[in-house]
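Researcher: I'd like a candidate sequence for this fold, 380 residues long. If you have to choose between options at a position, lean toward the conservative one.
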């Protein structure tokens, strides 16, 4: 029997053992040469922590708020597609794990449990992530269903006018399972297809023999003409706060504030879209400086340790989101696995704060970290 994992990274191997290769490759993969995928994690390793001593750290408080909602720690669940490929309970298990930790899950529009099923599975605070569709009625329908079900914010992902080139998915001829949120809209285009592990519904109209079915699905449905002016439309169809996910430059951060978004997620989509996009931790501060505290800045990409969370907070994030770690936890051990992953990150963050002299999140300051750039500068 494999030893119990002692850190989040060890869940990846357990997930690999638990999953069919096609799904593991889909979850793990990044775009093209996967340079950004590697960088998302390595860039954290180039940041050091400057601990302060002789501060009372006998009590550590990890709690914070995001858009006014209190959460037990600044660690949220990023939207990731198709959790039933990882575990039969799918997003419901992930949502329950988030609820058990009193944190926020962002449900992907491409979930394998419906918006309604996830909403009724537990009473955690949830946000809902969307892409903009060519058919605006589908976007509007999803947003309004989420609002009716008590989701507290809409997260519009803006880094995916087209799907990035994920070569493992192309080789594996990756196919999408049943996407229950869409049944009414796309019913006619799907057909049943029996495979070794489950029954899938393929997006037949576009099914390609020689590539990733997801890529075809995205190309047909996502609106590649989406631009800044469309944020107004989204805001006009919902009373919920609108966050945009996928900003990595100060120019776009400024535009986002101008069009009135309620929050920004610094993200490169887990390095699955544009290869050679910067590691997100290397651009977080640039975005935070541009935003000037007007809206919360959230962060994702490469968080695997409590020290990574600490570094992102020191560079100005209000909270971080985890993508693959949650999916690996789910694949390895279902709801319990996701709970354990969050628990591990919380415990590590708590220890990091104690060893750095920060009893509360507000004590984590820019001076607690040193970037590679600053180290080089100080040697000149
Ligand atoms: C398997 C997988 C599926 C994803 N699906 C979505 C999605 O449906 N919508 C979205 O906005 N981002 C999606 N993302 C990106 C995540 O929200 C997040 O930005 C990324 O995973 C963070 O990096 P990390 O995996 O290193 O934590 C996905 C990422 C992965 C790994
Ligand atoms: C197939 C996708 C659109 C889901 C996604 O965002 C991803 O796989 O990164």
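Model: Candidate sequence:
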């Amino acid at each position: 029997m494999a030893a119990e994992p002692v850190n989040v990274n060890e869940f990846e191997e357990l997930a690999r053992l638990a999953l069919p290769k096609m799904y593991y490759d889909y979850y793990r993969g990044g775009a093209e040469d996967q340079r950004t995928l590697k960088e998302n994690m390595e860039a954290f390793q180039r940041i050091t922590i400057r601990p302060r001593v002789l501060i009372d750290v006998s009590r550590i408080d990890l709690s914070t708020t995001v858009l006014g909602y209190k959460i037990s720690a600044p660690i949220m669940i990023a939207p990731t597609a198709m959790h039933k490929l990882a575990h039969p309970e799918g997003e419901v298990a992930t949502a329950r794990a988030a609820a058990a930790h009193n944190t926020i899950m962002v449900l992907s529009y491409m979930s394998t449990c419906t918006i309604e099923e996830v909403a009724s599975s537990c009473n955690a605070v949830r946000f809902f992530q969307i892409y903009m569709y060519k058919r605006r009625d589908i976007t509007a329908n999803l947003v309004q269903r989420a609002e009716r079900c008590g989701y507290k914010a809409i997260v519009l992902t803006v880094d995916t006018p087209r799907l990035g080139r994920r070569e493992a998915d192309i080789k594996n001829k990756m196919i999408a399972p049943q996407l229950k949120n869409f049944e009414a809209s796309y019913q006619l285009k799907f057909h049943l297809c029996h495979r070794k592990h489950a029954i899938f519904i393929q997006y037949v109209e576009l099914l390609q023999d020689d590539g990733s079915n997801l890529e075809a699905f995205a190309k047909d449905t996502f609106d590649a003409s989406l631009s800044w002016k469309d944020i107004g439309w989204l805001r006009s169809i919902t009373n919920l706060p609108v966050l945009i996910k996928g900003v990595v430059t100060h120019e776009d951060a400024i535009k986002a504030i101008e069009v009135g978004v309620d929050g920004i997620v610094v993200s490169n989509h887990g390095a699955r879209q544009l290869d050679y996009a910067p590691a997100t931790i290397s651009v977080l501060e640039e975005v935070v400086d541009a935003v000037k505290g007007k809206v919360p800045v959230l962060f994702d990409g490469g968080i695997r340790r409590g020290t990574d969370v600490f570094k992102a907070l020191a560079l100005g994030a209000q909270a971080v989101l985890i993508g693959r770690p949650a999916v690996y936890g789910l694949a390895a051990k279902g709801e319990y696995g996701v709970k354990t992953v969050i628990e591990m990150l919380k415990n590590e963050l708590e220890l990091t704060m104690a060893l750095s002299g920060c009893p509360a999140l507000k004590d984590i300051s820019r001076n607690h970290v040193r970037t590679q750039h600053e180290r080089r500068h100080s040697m000149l």
